[in-house]
Structures are given as structure tokens and as C-alpha cells.
Specification:
The structure holds 2 protein chains of 2 kinds. By secondary structure, chain A is mostly helical. Helix content of chain A is about 65%, strand content about 5%. Chain A has 9 helices and 2 strands, in the order αααααααββαα. Chain B has 2 domains: about 35 residues; about 140 residues, no CATH class. Chain B is elongated and about 80 Å long. The chains are: A mainly alpha, B alpha+beta. Chains A and B meet through α4 and α5 of A and α1 of B.
């Protein structure tokens, strides 16, 4: 796999190694932040930034970091980028910062970020690591978007972004979808659909 | 490979760089003055759309008791208060507005750290609009004989907001009544 080029590293996060639907990483945030499309998008963008930046820096420093302190060093680097993101969001978009709540600082321990750092970025060149991080981030984001579009549309009866109503459905909302059990059920269904596609592609 | 000293050294340097970077950035953003004014006043202007002046009323010790909301032409429109209480995970700060009959005009959650998607839904109009027009005795969850329907899956957060508002109304209204009598 280390023979492949940067565009390929980017592409694999979109489907074949999709962080949520293939590797089942970051499920906690995928369920918790996927009730409103607006929040899912903000969470996705924050994660893309953190993944890309931390992957690249970790790759650059991979020969400077002794094996023994790999994990604490990675955590410090990731936490630094997460805190940068948090300060920025808090200052410029306080509403979104409030909506994401505890899940924003928790990107630090999002398994997607740590998994990519340890299993990929620490063993490859910076460009490939960056491509990998961005690809995984985009994969995670569209995963979140799929879940949140379904949950907000049917759970709340319409999508609202930045206080503007995008559209409303003329049916009674299925409250269950907006609640955690509904999230789990939907996640299971989506995983089934994704696995079906995967099987068809590579029988 | 680096010895124990090298390992500790590198980790320390990494940490120091991180701390330095974040402090600098945080100060920079703070200096831009993006974080603005008293959030309670901002909340009041959302609650009292026609009001332009919010005058704090102090007690003898110069602590703010409540706010009076005035229109541009100086008409008294109502009273505002803001109070903090315990939620499920942390403090919840709520601002409220009362009309001249001391019924709720509107509420706004200034700060909360409840569970996103569950307790955090206390900020939504669907929950807060229920309070409009209620008198203090009705500001209770339905299961305690009031008129507020709790958010499903978030009764602790719903109860917290309801309690903050009722206690504030019970504190402020006697003060207001005493003032009106004068």
C-alpha cells in the first residue's frame, strides 16, 4: 500500500476504507452530533482540519519522536490542533461552539484521528499523510451528513441551517429518529446498505 | 534511540511549544475583541423586541435585582432577569422577561453545557415558547402540576430550566409588587 500515491491515499477514505462505515471508528460522534445538519457540517470541517494538520505534523516529526513516547506525543499534537479549532470557533461562531459542546474537545480522543496518526501518518511521508487525513476527514464528514440529513428531515420534519429553514416536510416528524435509539437503528441500517455496496464492488 | 533524559526532554519541549502556541493564539483572538458585551443584555433585546433601554435596578448593596425594559419613547414594557442554576452537566444560565402583569413574555438560554441532541434542546423555541404567558405558579413540569412539557429524554435539563425560572419569578415578583404599590 505504501507504493500508492497521494490521490489514492485521499480516495481510500471516501469508500474502501471509510472511517465510519468500513472501519467503524468515530461512532460516538457520528451518533451524537448527527441530529442537526448544521452541527454535523461544523463537526466535519473541524475534524477535517484536525486530521489533516495532525497527520502532516506527525509525519514530519516521525523520525524525531522516540517509539516509547509515541502515544503521548501524538496526543499533545492532536490536542493542540483541537484546542486551536476550539478557540477559533468560540471566538468567531459562538453559536456553533455551544451546539457542539463537549464533543468538540473530544475530537482529541476520536479514534479516527489517533488511528490515522499511529497506523499511517507515523510511517509515511508528509504529503501522503496529509492526503490520508483529508480523505478520512471528508469521508467522516459525508458520513455524518448522510446520517444527519435523514435524522433532521424525518426526525424534525425539515432542515434548518443558520436559522433559515431549508425545507419542511408535510408529515408528522418521527421523534424516535432524533433520539439516541433512532440514531443506533439508522446507523445499523446504513451499515447494512454500505456493506451491501462493498460486497457488490469486490465480491 | 534517545535515553530516558532525551525522552523526557522531548516530551517537555513538545508540551512547552504547544502551551506557548495556544496561549499566544488565545490572546490574539481575545485582543480582536470578538468576544462581546454582556450576554444577558443581548438576550433581553431578543426577548423584548420593541425595547431599546434596559435599566438595571439595584438594591442597597448595589447588586442588580432585575432590569426594567423601556421602549424608545420611555414606556415601561416589562422586567428582565438572568439567573444561573445547575443543569445535568454544568451550569445553565437563563434570561427571562416578564410583562407588566408579571407573566412570562419570553426566555432565552444564555449558557448551557447539556447533552447535545437531548438536554441541549432546552435552547430550542419549541421548548421555551411553552413558558410564554405563564404565571409563576404554572412554571412547573406537567408531572408536578405545572404547564411545561419536558423534552423527552431530557427531564433533568427541562426541570433545571423550569426551576430556575420559577425561583427567579418568586424572587422578583414580590419586589416588583412592592414597587408598584409605592
Amino acid at each position: 500500500m505504501w507504493m500508492s500515491s497521494a490521490p489514492l491515499e485521499f480516495k481510500k477514505g471516501l469508500f474502501v476504507r471509510h472511517p465510519v462505515f468500513h472501519m467503524l471508528l468515530g461512532l460516538c460522534t457520528s451518533l451524537a452530533i448527527s441530529i442537526k445538519v448544521e452541527n454535523a457540517l461544523a463537526m466535519g470541517v473541524a475534524t477535517i482540519f484536525v486530521l489533516g494538520a495532525s497527520n502532516m505534523l506527525i509525519s514530519l516529526l516521525r523520525n524525531q519522536i522516540p517509539r516509547e513516547i509515541e502515544l503521548p506525543s501524538f496526543l499533545v499534537i492532536i490536542a493542540t490542533f483541537v484546542t486551536l479549532t476550539e478557540i477559533t470557533l468560540k471566538a468567531f461562531t459562538p453559536e456553533i461552539h455551544k451546539a457542539l459542546g463537549i464533543y468538540l474537545p473530544l475530537i482529541t480522543v476520536n479514534c479516527i484521528v489517533l488511528a490515522r496518526a499511529q497506523s499511517f501518518a507515523a510511517r509515511t511521508t508528509p504529503i501522503k499523510a496529509l492526503a490520508d487525513g483529508l480523505g478520512m476527514g471528508v469521508g467522516y464528514t459525508y458520513g455524518l451528513l448522510i446520517i444527519s440529513v435523514i435524522r433532521e428531515t424525518f426526525g424534525k420534519g425539515g432542515i434548518e441551517i443558520m436559522g433559515k429553514t431549508l425545507f419542511t416536510l408535510n408529515i408528522a416528524p418521527t421523534e424516535l429518529l432524533a433520539l439516541p435509539p433512532g440514531g443506533f437503528i439508522l446507523m445499523g441500517l446504513l451499515l447494512a446498505v454500505f456493506t451491501r455496496f462493498e460486497r457488490r464492488r469486490a465480491p | 534511540m534517545a535515553g530516558p533524559v532525551g525522552i523526557v526532554g522531548r516530551l517537555t519541549v513538545t508540551l512547552l511549544i504547544s502551551v506557548f502556541l495556544l496561549t499566544t493564539y488565545s490572546n490574539l483572538v481575545g485582543d480582536l475583541g470578538v468576544i462581546d458585551g454582556d450576554p444577558a443584555l443581548k438576550a433581553f433585546s431578543k426577548i423584548f423586541r420593541d425595547a431599546s433601554i434596559f435599566k438595571p435596578v439595584f438594591d442597597e448593596k448595589n447588586d442588580t435585582l432585575y432590569f426594567e425594559a423601556y421602549s424608545v419613547d420611555g414606556r415601561l414594557l416589562g422586567y428582565g432577569f438572568s439567573q444561573t442554576g445547575r443543569g445535568m452537566w454544568g451550569d445553565i444560565q437563563v434570561a427571562g422577561g416578564l410583562d407588566l402583569d408579571f407573566n412570562v413574555i419570553g426566555l432565552s438560554v444564555i449558557e448551557q453545557g447539556e447533552t447535545p441532541g437531548l438536554g441541549a434542546r432546552i435552547v430550542e423555541d419549541r421548548f421555551l415558547d411553552q413558558f410564554k404567558g405563564l404565571e409563576s405558579g404554572d412554571v412547573k413540569l406537567e408531572k408536578y402540576g405545572g404547564k411545561v412539557d419536558a423534552i423527552s429524554g431530557a427531564s433533568i435539563s427541562s426541570k433545571a430550566v423550569t426551576e430556575i425560572i420559577r425561583l427567579e419569578m418568586e424572587r422578583v415578583i414580590p419586589l416588583l409588587e412592592a414597587n408598584v404599590d409605592e
